[in-house]
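The freezer alarm interrupted the setup, so I double-checked each line after restarting. Inputs confirmed:
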Amino acid sequence: MQALVDRIYGTLKARTGEGRVADYIPQLAKVDRDKFGIAIEMVDGTSFVAGDVDEPFSIQSVSKVFTLTLALGKIGDSLWARVGREPSGTPFNSIVQLEHERGIPRNPFINAGAIVVADVILAGHEPREAIGEILRFVRFLADDETISIDPAVARSETETGFRNAALANYMRSFGNIHHAVEKVLGVYFHHCAIAMSCRQLARAGLFLANGGRNPLTGFGVVSRERARRINALMLTCGHYDGSGDFAFRVGLPGKSGVGGGILVTVPGRASIAVWSPGLDANGNSRVGSLALEAIAQETGWSVFSR
Amino acid sequence: MQALVDRIYGTLKARTGEGRVADYIPQLAKVDRDKFGIAIEMVDGTSFVAGDVDEPFSIQSVSKVFTLTLALGKIGDSLWARVGREPSGTPFNSIVQLEHERGIPRNPFINAGAIVVADVILAGHEPREAIGEILRFVRFLADDETISIDPAVARSETETGFRNAALANYMRSFGNIHHAVEKVLGVYFHHCAIAMSCRQLARAGLFLANGGRNPLTGFGVVSRERARRINALMLTCGHYDGSGDFAFRVGLPGKSGVGGGILVTVPGRASIAVWSPGLDANGNSRVGSLALEAIAQETGWSVFSR
Amino acid sequence: MQALVDRIYGTLKARTGEGRVADYIPQLAKVDRDKFGIAIEMVDGTSFVAGDVDEPFSIQSVSKVFTLTLALGKIGDSLWARVGREPSGTPFNSIVQLEHERGIPRNPFINAGAIVVADVILAGHEPREAIGEILRFVRFLADDETISIDPAVARSETETGFRNAALANYMRSFGNIHHAVEKVLGVYFHHCAIAMSCRQLARAGLFLANGGRNPLTGFGVVSRERARRINALMLTCGHYDGSGDFAFRVGLPGKSGVGGGILVTVPGRASIAVWSPGLDANGNSRVGSLALEAIAQETGWSVFSR
Amino acid sequence: MQALVDRIYGTLKARTGEGRVADYIPQLAKVDRDKFGIAIEMVDGTSFVAGDVDEPFSIQSVSKVFTLTLALGKIGDSLWARVGREPSGTPFNSIVQLEHERGIPRNPFINAGAIVVADVILAGHEPREAIGEILRFVRFLADDETISIDPAVARSETETGFRNAALANYMRSFGNIHHAVEKVLGVYFHHCAIAMSCRQLARAGLFLANGGRNPLTGFGVVSRERARRINALMLTCGHYDGSGDFAFRVGLPGKSGVGGGILVTVPGRASIAVWSPGLDANGNSRVGSLALEAIAQETGWSVFSR
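Predicted 3D structure, all chains:
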């Protein structure tokens, strides 16, 4: 298995120059495009890694898996009255759908949906408290107290996040955001700025591969059914408008971020995190996707092939 | 297992009155709403059934799984230049997306995509020949020469199919339909009018659960990889705008039809067909979905929970 | 006045090379791009012309003014239950709006609306009869029996009109087309293929400048109120998505066609027809629009400046 | 003429109960639905009035005519690089179009367009200064120093204006808003809260009927050409998605506001203001529109009928 990871890493390392690094946030544009890491954490406690697996990167939208989990823990399935569970499915972006669906975002992984999730977590508290709660939760999941938020990235998002402010105000006009927009966005921008390494990320996602329980710490996070359902959402909605293609090629639940990270669940077996900053046209890590496709291909781990 | 199927059948039989029978085609509106069948064909050759499992019904869009398989056999992955692989994802219907995406349908399971698939199968022949080829293929998959097309349903579709004629003409204006529209629609309407029983349907889908090979006949249908990919498409796109919800609740690849049938793959284990004509708001069998949710729940067969 | 027309003609003649000739119909693509004519017919019977004013060209969508007038004569204001009176207003084309507005086109000058108008004129007759009626009506308006339909253009439209077939089928799916689609399109394609010279066209439109009555023949065509209303529709909807711009720059009711013709009403004063085949991005005659802007500027004939 | 106005007032007074008063802003919902006024100011200095013509009401979007005029005075036709001149033309609201047209609103009279205009007027100053400038300009146009802004209405807009905040942030994400969103909206909400009587409003609009010059004060406001063009924009875009219908029925340039006011230009003759708070489905004064239709009908003042 380690040989397999090394081989895939070696083959793809040469292609990290492909794709474009996200540049809409100045802080993200500074990242070294040649960074590349693969970390596989098995549910039995073994792990296989290659490349830059200990260097923290901005997990961006991958954090939405964790905030969704946290929000479901707070208000349970009543969340689904405020956020849908369907792929967003249009190349043109989500504000159109908000209009057609009266302020209800399609799913918790598009920006609008994650902003509603942040509103749920805010729950009457100050942004500082909510951000702290999210960070503590992620540290708990990864069993690693060193995980932190990159303040420069959070500030960068705040300064340029007009599109997200539009989404939040728009949903507020329908009553689907309950707190002041700037507070909600404060929470949202900060959790997107969480920095983690591949190894930390793979560990933090391990509960999803193990029926809701972290096999390393033994702590239960969510019920078996909820773990299964979060995986389903990742598969159908985890890669923006490339979700269908990712399911087709890789066949595993995953969530990508514009920082170039992807977190993938192999139900019953492993949690995988990859990182390569060059993005494809849909905003997903190009080489990261290829690495996952190769891993799925060679291991036969696709959920569709057993 | 048989006890489980009997119990689920018994519990849900009382609810077959829920939902609305499809009425846009007069022939479909005539069906008895209380029909209900569950057929589970295991890859090991055993089977578990309950209810109306030997009565043929109009499989409608479930046939798109078979025509996709046939078209991929003819032209391989070049099909994907003419049809996408992403969930359609909008509640408003698909002609809008065709406009935005220049005549390329989002996936092969929405009407527009299946019409392109029919155009591929037509391949210069007369509709009669293409229809014959599709029917022979389905009979081969199910290993049952008695399967036929309901001519009254096919005629009914032809008479009222203005929306599909609009889609086909629209795609033809972009050059993505190569044959005369009436010929392509002739093929499309006829394969939607295939009539099969739950038992036949479950058998016809068994190759998808068994790595591309029908375990009952031993015949290979597609490669392991292609079987996996068709399953992925069923999971992300198989239930119109309820695909995300079906993945969330059931967690298995499936394809529904407005005749009330659903075909589901349990990779490595089984093929399931259910039939109950009452539909939910998205056009999927209401009681059929509940039956599959219960089966997945009790067996733990979700692809997301291993 | 003649000097003014000569001067504007002279200045703009040098620019007829600008813009692109419509090429979606092969027959239209063959036209000589340097053709340019201006014909002003005053309500007092005088006329001022310059350039190619006696050569017939394909009037295309300008014919929609005449078919609208004819349809209103047949069924009166009940037409407005089937066609709206609002500018179409989106750069992306009209099939989207048909979806949102359940098969009711925005106005009678976009393709979908004109197809409904053709359906009204068809009124249970054969296409041949309806086409004959339209042609007789246009000859009556222009008081010129030599006007005819170019059969090569009509055939050309029929062969390539998949987009219009999509629109017609789509509206038929909502019940807003009452006859067989191929018959309705037969009427539509033929009236778009009417060939007229600038001089004929200006005369045919003169009733709109004169309270509904042709001042040359003395025949009443429509009531004063209906003439006013048709002018209003031309002003708000006559130039596709360039209607607002034309009103802003020229300030007169007009209807353009992709053959490069524009018919304009100067209420109380004159009817103007210009022809220059080079089109702007919205499909309106580029030099023709400039000629009309210059005429309006120098004469002060804008409806907004009295 | 006075008799005509009295008669129309008398006939329609009985129907002021029709339509719904705008309730999205609490302050507007409090207005007495039975208020009704008609003021006609002729360019020759005579005037004809009936009903509640001296009571100030919230002019709301009618103010956009004045801010457009002011912004054109500041930056001239370069404004048109940031705002279009086409009718918005869709029943579904404008944020969709902003997405398709990359942050450029269709015209200066829809909310998004007027927000860009407010951004132009802000021009680096503080909102207080810009608001003061707009108010002084309107007082100058009406030659009436008593005109003021209703602070309760302005505050009410600010508190509930999430939809407008969404539009402004969205345009800012495309770079088409240059100042802080809250400052721009401060200007926008305040000019919408200008309170004027019918008489004041008709006088303020008189320059548009008189080639750009106020005939009562003798002061030039804009060039003849600009007056003509503003009238053209009012005709094509002045009544939201009812603009085509208003042109069809009334045939005069007009701008409505959800406070129930409508300002109309009769080029060369008069400026008319009507007020009746009950609105139709498009947000235009129901009885006000009927009054204008009757005036246009009986006087023959339509721009399309001379």
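Quick read of the result. Chain A touches chain D through 17 residues (CB under 8 Å).
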